[in-house]
Amino acid sequence: MQAKSKIKFSALFHSKAGIVVATILGILSAFAFLSPTIIPSAFNEIVLFNIVERFLHVAHGADRGITSAAFAVFFILFYKKTICAPDSEIFGGVRYSFLSLLFSLSLSVALIVGESFRAFGDFSFIIGYRFQMLLSIILLLGYTIFFYTVAELAVYYLDKIMTKHIPYNTADNEFNNKLCAEGAMPQQRMATFLLERRPFLIPLCILMICWLPIWLIKFPGILTLDATVQLAQFRGGLAWSDHHPVLGSLILGALLELGSFINNDDTGIFIIVLFQMLLFASSCSFALLKIRKWGIPLNIRILFLLFWALNPIFSNQLLVVLKCNISNALLLFFFVLYIDFIKNIQLGIWKKRLDKHIFIHLGCIVAVGVLATLIRHNNLYITVISILLLLIIRQNARQRIAIVLAAVICFAGANIISTSLRNSLGAEQGCISEALSIPFQQTARFVFEHPELVTPEDRAAIDAVLCFDSLPELYVPWLSDPVKDTFRGDTSALPEYFKHWFQMGMRRPLTYVSATIANSYAYFAPVKFTSFDRDYTRAHHAGIAFDDEFENLFDFKDTYPHSVRSGFQILFETLRRIPLINLFFSMAHYTWLIIFMMVVLLKKSCYRAIVAFAPAGLMILTFIASPINGEVRYFLSVIAAMPLFMSWIIYSIYIKETERSICSAQ
After folding, report:
1. CA 446, chain centre distance (Å)
2. How many whole angstroms separate alpha carbon 270 and alpha carbon 265?
3. Which residues neighbour 52 within 8 Å (Cβ) at sequence distance 6 or greater?
4. Taking Cα atoms as reference points, which of 35, 147, 70 lies closest to residue 526?
5. DSSP assignment, residue 177?
6. 272 with 252: CB under 8 angstroms?
7. How far apart are CA 640 and CA 284, in angstroms?
8. At what angle are helices 632-640 and 642-654 packed, to 10 degrees?
9. What is the pLDDT of residues 458-475, one digit of tens each?
10. What pLDDT, on the 0 to 100 scale, is given for residue 496?
11. What is the pLDDT of residues 183-229, one digit of tens each?
12. Which has more confidence, 533 or 375?
């Protein structure tokens, strides 16, 4: 039956026909990846009539022409050896191919849309001229064919490698580790001894040691405006506000005071950064500890450890004093506990134990979720909804009741504690405008692009909520803060505002869509993006420079010259431009890697295992509604969770059934 359900691509191509098809596909993909993002200004410059010239880049010199030809040859040979190869073992199966095709098509659309917004800030590259739509279709075909082929190859070789190198040992319920075998090299035995005998402590120490050089360059750390405001509130220089959650301000302030008591404020910054790094390293080590219990081999765990240790995104970001770093570490703890809970439910190990085990595990999930919410407000929706989505997993009635109870406790507990802290300090409640980035940006873009379509009634409704006259000059496509800052604070005017907001959107829906994409495309479109102000090479007290009134509250000294930090930043930016290495710096690549892992689970009929990606998916949705486009500090926990998600794929597809049979036999 399986043979009948598959359609071999090789049946469509004879040897000669395969070469022709591979040539066509190769030229399409080469053109897609090499075509410049421009909009023709006149009919005779349309790419439809200059496709050969554009492809060879004759106008840009012979070197580019040679490069283009080399790319074309590479793609032609790639397709000849894969999708057009006779008797292909990979490219068949209607069911599997459809999922890969859907994934590849979606990724290609995101890439083209993102490139259009990166270059022009709207859909101009797609619909800006008569034949731009045709050009977009050509690019779409070239991208989709390549991504489809790579996706199918990835699934095929994942199966091939995992089934060959991951034998399961029923004696101790763990994998046979080849590094422990007789004849292993001494360094292999040492790695095995360290990571197997001390699976939590040794990875933590390795991470701290690997992050140390960059810390020394930026010693004692980088202080931004948000953290400066929180510390100023703690020291009484500003009134308490729940705009930044109170608990986060208390933690940062207490650590700063500890450093001041020991020596000075610079020591306080040192202690805060040390706390952030230790907490984040602990969450990574905890993830390694858990996936070890899942049966993930040591060599794969070493690769994951190197990902955290050598990826400069982590070492660079953790040196910045931010509540987001504490939040990201707690969210990684949440991810680990959440996925481990799903694993235990699917194995059914709690059916033979007292129900107290499920309550203990859920209690840990709730505790971490509440802490994460008290550090960053929008974590409330991520944690509560994620817990409720556990109901999708097959459980008994008592377990379902426990899950619902856990969600209620998480929601109520976070709100009660937050309200109690706010009331005890007399803190002002955070402004609702923080949750309205999307509609405010859409309104500002509408006023900026179509002022003639704004009626007097629309203007009055908008002006009651925002400063209407300032919107055109304050609108920044990738940043909503300037628009949000004009919020007048009158919540009673919001119903009338939303009524006119909806009516304006019906007049120009594409404007609203453009406003949202322009403010978020870096999170889902794999294109080059540079955040607006992430120059953390400045002095560690850089945040104070935003407001002179804070200078009397702190006693910081610039201990390192700016040239040292600037030199490191140049190196950091150089790494971001190196092919393949730059993939580690793009947030959108991680988003699509998560989607691809979900596609793999669908292919393998592991439908309920997809629930494990719920927290990450919810986080990505919140990023789309965030005030700033392309902020790594928001995305750091998702990036750090990649090894965890990859381990879950390996476990769900290649380990779970064997382990389940072992647990059932015990």
Report:
1. 29
2. 9
3. none
4. 147
5. P
6. yes
7. 8
8. 30
9. 999 999 999 999 999 999
10. 95
11. 455 655 666 666 777 889 999 999 999 999 888 888 888 888 888 88
12. 375
- DSSP character at residue 254: H
Rg (CA), the chain: 27
The strand pairing partners of 168, in sequence order, are 175
- Rounded Cα distance between 109 and 638, Å, is 23
The 10s digit of each residue's pLDDT in 1-52 is: 333 444 444 444 445 677 888 888 898 898 888 876 655 544 344 444 444 4
The residue assigned the tokens 């075998």 is 181
Helices 323-347 and 356-375 sit at what angle, rounded to 10 degrees?
160
Cα→Cα distances 6→15, 92, 263, 491, 518, Å: 21, 5, 71, 59, 42
Give me the residue label for tokens 């070469």: 19
- Is pLDDT above 50 for 61? no
Residue 526 pLDDT greater than 50, yes or no: yes
Task: Give the tens place of pLDDT for each residue, 316-350.
Answer: 899 999 999 999 999 999 999 999 999 988 876 66
Q: Which residue has the tokens 């029923």?
A: 170
Burial class (CB in 10 A: 0-12, 13-18, 19+), 153: middle
What is the DSSP pairing of strand 222-223 with strand 320-321? parallel
CA 320 to CA 538: how far, in whole Å?
11
For residue 295, which of 174, 128, 116 has the smallest C-alpha distance? 174
Nearest to 483 by CA among 530, 515, 521, 452: 515
Q: What tokens appear for 494 in the block?
A: 């919001």
User: Tokens representing 512?
Assistant: 């609203």
Strands 174-175 and 222-223, by their bridges, are unpaired
pLDDT at 540 over 50: no
Residue 649 contacts by C-beta under 8 Å, 6 or more apart in sequence?
597, 600, 601
> What is the per-residue pLDDT for 291?
94
The residue whose two tokens read 């991680």 is 590
Residue 442, Cα to own-chain centre: how many angstroms?
24
Q: How many CB atoms lie within 10 A of CB 438?
A: 18
* CA 450 – CA 434 distance, rounded (Å): 25
Q: Is residue 199 within 8 Å of 289, Cβ to Cβ?
A: yes
Answer yes or no: are the C-beta atoms of 548 and 133 closer than 8 Å. no
pLDDT tier, 556 (very low <50, low <70, confident <90, very high otherwise): confident
Rounded Cα distance between 417 and 432, Å, is 19
The DSSP annotation for 413-467 comes to HHHHHHHHHHHHHTPBPPPGGGG-HHHHHHHHHHHHH-GGG--HHHHHHHHTTS-
What are the helix (H) ranges across 348-396? 356-375, 379-389
CA dist 525 and 112 (Å) reads: 8
